[in-house]
Amino acid sequence: MKIIKESNKENLTGYLFVAPQILLFLIFLVYPIIEGIRLSLFQINYQDEVFVGLDNYRKLFSDPVFIQSTINTVIFVVFIVALTVVFAMFVSAAVFDKNAKYVSFIRGAYYIPVMVSMVVMSMIWSFLLNPANGLIPFVARELEVVSVNFLGDTRLVLPVIIFVTFATNVGQAIILYIASMIGVPKELFEAAEVDGASRMKVIFKIIIPMVKPTTLYIIIMNIIAVLKIFVVIQLLTGGGPNNASTTLMYYLYNNAFKYNQLGIASAVGVIMFLITLVLSIPQLRAMFKKD
Amino acid sequence: MFKKKAKKREKIDIVFNIIVIFFAILSLFPLYWLVTSSFKNSADVVKMPPDWFPKTFTWSNYADVFSNQPAFTWAYNSLVVALVSTFALIIVSALAAYAFSKLKFKGKNILFIIFISSLMIPKEVMIVPLFRIIQDFGMVNTLSGMIFPNVATAFGVFLLKGFFDTIPDSLREAAKIDGASEFKIFYKIMLPLAKPGIGALFILNFVQVWNDYLWQLVVGQSKDSKTLMVGIATLMQDLNPNFAYKMAGATVAAIPMLLIFIFFQKYFTKGITLGSDK
């Protein structure tokens, strides 16, 4: 009898400790997800909601701007994530075994753009790339590169945004890789040295395989971060020229807060939610395997 | 023999490190350009070829930012939103993380799995329903409206549970035998021991909320309810053609984070890495 009482008391204490978190979680996470799915099935006009089934989704897939947004988002994800992983791996493998001051300088130099935020960096890049009086078009003219309107050219706008986003955010991956490489057991490197393995061999045969969990983490975190890419689009191109650089998040935002198409916007949100859910499965699996 | 090996190792290493240093400097260049441009006058800032070092030095762009725009109000809003979000997050998630780590209660594992599964879902994808909730609560144009969704993230629970897990259970049992209540154990014994984790969470979350944009843009629509990031970004659409003025605004938004990074670099490295290896 007493034991049952004890365990009930423990249960209650446990619930009390998690209650505030659960309450917030239900209101601001679980409910919005369910409500988002519901809204995506309605046509919404201020207070007026009409059930339309899957019409919003059908409309989406017949809207060329949505298709363009999806294609652009996929392009951004693929190129930015690939660039980030390769470059961060390169930088980290070069510096991780050097002295601490140097490592901390390199880490800082690449991480400071992350710190000052995408908003500030986008403003700087917008100034640097400004066709009339930006530094980069000036240099391009001096070097006699043909096009200097980097953000106004439909063929150049995607590579430019890929570069700007990559250059602003790569510091995060570098911090993760350096920490992970410093954690690789020293004996492995000593053994390789005894065998006379070259630096390249050490990188490819020891470092890259040993940091694989970090690579997985970086890939997934970056895919999800790039999936919701918004700031750089709004501040640099406004989705233009001619929707050439629009993305899913930008499309969602415009539909929700400019065109007042809440049903359509919700449908985009649901699609993005499902994509993140699927993408996070490998990472979650890796996390639970450890526990 | 040792010398030869060391030399062979260094050659490609040196080449790699030169490339790394070159890009590191390149990566800092935009910020150099930002800060120096913000001190140029409106003519010098667009002069081509440019002055690589500003020849004139003026504070007037900063004076303009603070006199033409409610920049102090924006900075104050950002500070309140970031601080309150972070404090609330720490309290709420420390409580939950402690329970998940040390207490036994029915449904604990399944609850934890649900929490962790939400970790990767960005709140931006639910921005329409979230905004409608904030609307129903009458919190549009308020700082509370910006704060609440920030506290609902499972990130803090995830990070702090790792810290509580490293604290031996024997401490808690000993205190229990002495007759301490569960909350007292949490507050007096466990919380102080989890300080490094709380410090890392504080810095990481503060910066994240300070730099957050989309949600604050949506909630703070009136000029005086904007946060610094959102307010400063509106300078880009400002009709004022003076780029130095816009760069001064961006510098104002960047400086607090630069200072935080310089003083707390250790915490960052720790906090960011914690997420990946737990």
Describe this structure in words.
The complex is a heterodimer of chains A (291) and B (278). Chain A is mostly helical and 291 residues long. Chain A has a single domain (55-290), classed as Orthogonal Bundle (MetI-like fold), CATH 1.10.3720. Chain A has 13 helices and 2 strands; from the N terminus they run H-E-E-H-H-H-H-H-H-H-H-H-H-H-H. Chain A has helices at 2-39, 55-61, 64-95, 100-115, 117-129, 135-142, 157-182, 186-194, 199-210, 212-227, 231-237, 248-257, 262-290; strands at 42-45, 48-51. The longest helix of chain A has 38 residues, at 2-39. Chain B has 278 residues and is mainly alpha-helical. Chain B folds into 2 domains: 2-60; 70-237, MetI-like fold (Orthogonal Bundle). Chain B contains 13 helices and no strands. Chain B has helices at residues 2-38, 60-68, 71-102, 108-117, 127-136, 143-151, 155-166, 169-177, 182-193, 195-211, 214-219, 228-234, 243-277. In chain B, helix 2 packs across helix 13 (243-277) and helix 3 (71-102) crosses helix 7. The longest helix of chain B is centred in the N-terminal third of the chain and has 37 residues, at 2-38. Chain B starts with a helix and ends with a helix. The model of chain B is unreliable at 1-7 (pLDDT under 50). Chains A and B meet through helix 1, helix 3, helix 4, helix 5 and helix 7 of A and helix 1, helix 3, helix 4, helix 5 and helix 6 of B.
